[in-house]
């Protein structure tokens, strides 16, 4: 038994998770590799070739690395768990006129819980992944995330939902490295092809990035049910018909198929009337939003008027704001207007580089 402990490493077959496993193995941990099958493309109705983390080549790459380095590897089929929660949430959110974030939901409710469950069954002390973020323990005992050193790869935003029991058992070895260093490590470990391997940024169950096609395949008769709704302006004036409210997202400009003589953007979606509101870019500016389904990390709660940096999407630089408690939810008031607040997306609150907590955007308010 290793003095450092036994760790279950999530291995997708990609460079980050493979280097994670090899780093921990070299550091003296007793490593067990596990690859989770979350989805198969046949279920999506796509004819595209499988790519990313859920294909046979990736499984083989992960197993090969484990065998070559002398530690065990298992494949875990969590398609049922994944589909019941992540897929259903994805569809339900679009049908409710919101824009879901399935990667956040998967990390929070499926992958980490599935890993911890199997880690306990295998008597593993820790679980580990190849995410670019860091975990710290507060002087008062709470565990929390902070941004990864490589800000271009930082993934703390998508991990805001991890609770204390998960954070306390998680190791994130890549948090203090840049991506270029990880590629060099892959070369040093003897995996030149892995070092060149491209990365997939697609949603794993929407292989061609066509979420509209996925919804049509998933919900029988959806296209007929929602077609013929109206584009309207902010005063309610009808501008033309659209293809169905679930097929549009807040801030969308391209693909509207309507000519108004100027660029227009989706500023609101109203499912009850199958209405999509269009406006100018300035109409996307908002000063406040309500956030629900909170998970706190660095602190177990926040005081009113706490000043934070709030990110409303993964690549967002963040905006200065103040937080206010409203019946267990959080009202966020921005110091300057922000653009394209999308209900259903995640809001994550930072104190410096540290994640205070996060939640799901319920709605925004115009200034």
Structure description:
The chain is of the alpha/beta class. It folds into 3 domains: 6-130 and 172-196, HUPs (Rossmann fold), CATH 3.40.50.620; 226-279, SH3 type barrels, CATH 2.30.30; 283-365, Translation factors (Elongation Factor Tu (Ef-tu), domain 3). The chain is built from 9 helices and 17 strands. A hairpin with a 4-residue loop joins strand 10 and strand 11 (275-279). The termini are far apart. Mean pLDDT is 91; it is low at 46-52.
Question: Secondary structure elements and their pairing?
Answer:
Elements: E1 6-10, H1 15-26, E2 30-37, H2 56-68, E3 73-77, H3 79-95, H4 102-121, E4 126-128, E5 133-137, E6 143-147, H5 164-167, E7 170-171, H6 179-188, H7 192-196, H8 211-218, H9 222-226, E8 230-232, E9 238-241, E10 265-270, E11 275-279, E12 285-296, E13 306-311, E14 319-326, E15 329-339, E16 346-351, E17 354-365
Helix pairs in contact: 1-6, 3-4
According to CATH, the fold-level topology of the largest domain is Rossmann fold
At CATH level 2, the architecture of the largest domain is: 3-Layer(aba) Sandwich
CATH class of the largest domain: Alpha Beta
Tally of strands: 17
Distance from first to last alpha carbon = 60 Å
| Strand-pairing-aware structural class | alpha/beta
Specify the overall morphology: globular
Bin the strand percentage. Answer: 25-35%
The description of the largest β-sheet is: 6 strands, antiparallel, barrel
**Oligomeric organization of the protein chains:** single chain
Overall helicity? 25-40%
CATH superfamily of the largest domain: HUPs
Could you name the ranges where pLDDT drops below 50 across 5 or more consecutive residues? 46-52
Q: How many structurally independent domains?
A: 3
Mean pLDDT: 91
Count every helix, treating DSSP H or I runs of 4 or more residues as helices.
9
Order of helices and strands: EHEHEHHEEEHEHHHHEEEEEEEEEE
**Strand neighbour order, sheet with most strands:** 12-15-14-13-16-17
Computed over alpha carbons, the radius of gyration is: 22 Å
